Structure formats: structure tokens, C-alpha cells
């Protein structure tokens, strides 16, 4: 169950718009239809507020209402917004060819992600496994921040206050295994500081390396490379760390060139 969000009164923000976006966020893979009570549970909003805002979102074309089941689903225009973002992104247009070239050359998976609250969201994912993997990652997919190389690389680059806030959330969410996860996150942060990247193997027989790409005025981008393998993490690092570092250099140069064009 997704973490319920706390809502703060902020006089400079439109609270109705904020709440409407929270309702759209409540829909995740595997949740095609949500009723008022489901949405209220996921957002922390009252059922009356949910009912009113869902009706508005239906009128705006963002939700479809199934009258028979008394539930809502995301409508097609939501998908068109995602397509517009991807197709019109100068960042993805510049970076995707570099990712594709490395994935094809080494027959590995290459991803680019950013943080969204306490999760990582793939902006692009090029899948080129050496052997078939059961896990299929696509653009827009979310993965846990605290368990993945992507998330741990982000935590290494995030500010101290933001990292403390997230670590407190993870501690509450992962009570039973928190000691081990915290140790792994701390080791990953140290690895990024010393070597530029960190690694993780949170899926069976999949090893991933990730590193943050920092540019002024941009969000923290995180690149990762992964492969389905029976080799150890250290063996995989020996093969993929160099290519990842080179890709990061090339991606940063491409993004800096974009910034120069805007000036």
C-alpha cells in the first residue's frame, strides 16, 4: 500500500489543484479501478473531498467513471501528457542515443531516472539483456529508493536534510530489516563519494551499478547499468564500472551543451 501523504496548508499554492494531483498519483500499476474509499486511503483525503475532486477530474477528461462498479480509472489524456513529456524532452533526445549505443555494445540494460518523493522513476530504459530476464523495466516505472542502486546513488547526492528526512521514512517503512538496509545505504553513499558509483543486487541474479549526474539548475539525474548474471557483484563492477563512468561523462557533456544552447 503506498505511503499516505501529509497535506500542509501553503498560502501560495492552490490546494484544490494539489489534492487533484494527489488523486491522480493514487493510480499505480495493478490498480486499474479505484473507488472513493480506495483513493481516500491512498491520499489521506476525506471521502467527500475525493468524490468532489474525482467528479471534476472526470469532467476534465483525466478520469473515467465506471458507474456500474462505482470506481474510477485513468483516462487516455493522461497517457498523452506522458507522451508529450517524453517526445518533447531535450534531455531525453540528447541522452537516449548514448544509452542505446552502450546497451547495444555491451548487451546490457541502461537506465536514466530521477527521484519522485521516496521513489525513483525511470525517464528512459534501454533493455538489452545478455540473457532473458523476467523483469521488464519501462519508462515511467517506479522502483524503491532505499533498495536500488538508483535510489542509493540519489541519496548520496541529495542534501543532508533531505537524506535525513528520507532515511526516517525508510526506517518506519522497513522496520524489520532496517538495520541491514541502513548499512547498505551508508556503504553505497561511501562508494559514490570514493568511486563515483554504487552497486546493488535487490533482484535475483541481477546486478546494477548507478551514479548521479549533477548539473546546476537541473534535478539530480541518476544513470544505471544492469545485467542479469550469475557473476558476483565485484566481478560485475569490474566489467561495468568503466563503461558507466564513461557514459556519465558523455551524458554530462551532452547536458552541458544543452544548457549552453539555452543561454
Oligomer: single chain
- Mean pLDDT over the full residue set: 92
Q: Report the end-to-end length measured between terminal Cα atoms.
A: 44 Å
Adjacency order of strands in the biggest sheet: 5-4-3-8-7-6
- Structural class, by secondary structure, is alpha+beta
Count the beta strands: 8
Sheet having the most strands: 6 strands, antiparallel
What shape does the CA trace take? globular
How many helices? 9
Global Rg? 20 Å
How would you spell out the order of helices and strands? HHHEEHHEEEHHHEEEH
Low-confidence parts lasting 5 or more residues at pLDDT below 50?
1-8
Give the proportion of residues in helices.
40-55%
Proportion in β-strands: 15-25%
Key structural traits:
263 residues, alpha+beta, six-stranded antiparallel β-sheet, two-stranded antiparallel ribbon, 50% helix, 19% strand, globular, disordered N terminus
Structure description:
The protein has nine helices and eight strands. With 263 residues, it is an alpha+beta fold. The protein has a six-stranded antiparallel sheet. A two-stranded antiparallel sheet has the order 1-2. A hairpin with a 2-residue loop joins strand 3 and strand 4. Helix 1 crosses helix 2, helix 2 crosses helix 3 and helix 5 runs antiparallel to helix 9.
Amino acid at each position: 500500500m503506498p505511503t499516505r501523504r501529509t497535506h500542509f496548508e501553503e498560502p501560495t499554492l492552490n490546494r484544490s489543484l494539489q489534492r487533484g494531483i494527489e488523486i491522480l498519483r493514487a493510480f499505480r500499476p495493478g490498480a486499474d479501478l479505484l473507488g472513493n474509499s480506495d483513493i481516500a486511503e491512498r491520499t489521506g483525503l476525506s471521502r467527500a473531498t475525493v468524490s468532489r475532486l474525482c467528479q471534476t477530474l472526470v469532467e476534465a477528461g483525466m478520469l473515467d467513471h465506471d458507474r456500474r462498479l462505482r470506481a474510477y480509472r485513468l483516462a487516455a489524456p493522461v497517457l498523452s501528457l506522458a507522451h508529450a513529456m517524453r517526445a518533447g524532452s531535450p534531455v531525453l533526445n540528447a541522452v537516449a542515443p548514448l544509452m542505446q549505443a552502450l546497451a547495444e555494445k555491451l548487451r546490457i540494460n541502461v537506465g536514466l531516472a530521477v527521484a519522485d518523493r521516496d521513489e525513483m522513476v525511470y525517464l528512459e530504459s534501454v533493455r538489452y539483456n545478455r540473457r532473458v530476464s523476467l523483469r521488464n523495466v519501462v519508462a515511467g516505472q517506479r522502483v524503491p529508493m532505499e533498495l536500488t542502486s538508483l535510489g542509493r546513488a540519489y541519496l548520496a547526492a541529495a542534501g543532508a536534510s533531505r537524506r535525513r528526512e528520507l532515511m526516517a521514512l525508510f526506517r518506519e517503512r522497513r522496520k524489520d530489516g532496517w538495520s541491514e538496509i541502513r548499512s547498505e545505504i551508508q556503504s553505497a553513499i561511501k562508494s559514490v563519494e570514493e568511486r563515483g558509483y554504487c552497486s546493488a543486487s535487490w533482484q535475483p541474479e541481477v546486478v546494477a551499478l548507478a551514479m548521479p549526474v549533477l548539473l546546476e539548475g537541473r534535478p539530480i539525474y541518476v544513470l544505471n547499468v544492469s545485467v542479469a548474471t550469475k557473476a558476483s557483484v565485484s566481478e560485475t563492477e569490474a566489467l561495468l564500472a568503466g563503461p558507466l563512468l564513461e557514459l556519465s561523462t558523455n551524458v554530462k557533456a551532452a547536458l552541458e551543451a544543452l544548457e549552453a544552447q539555452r543561454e
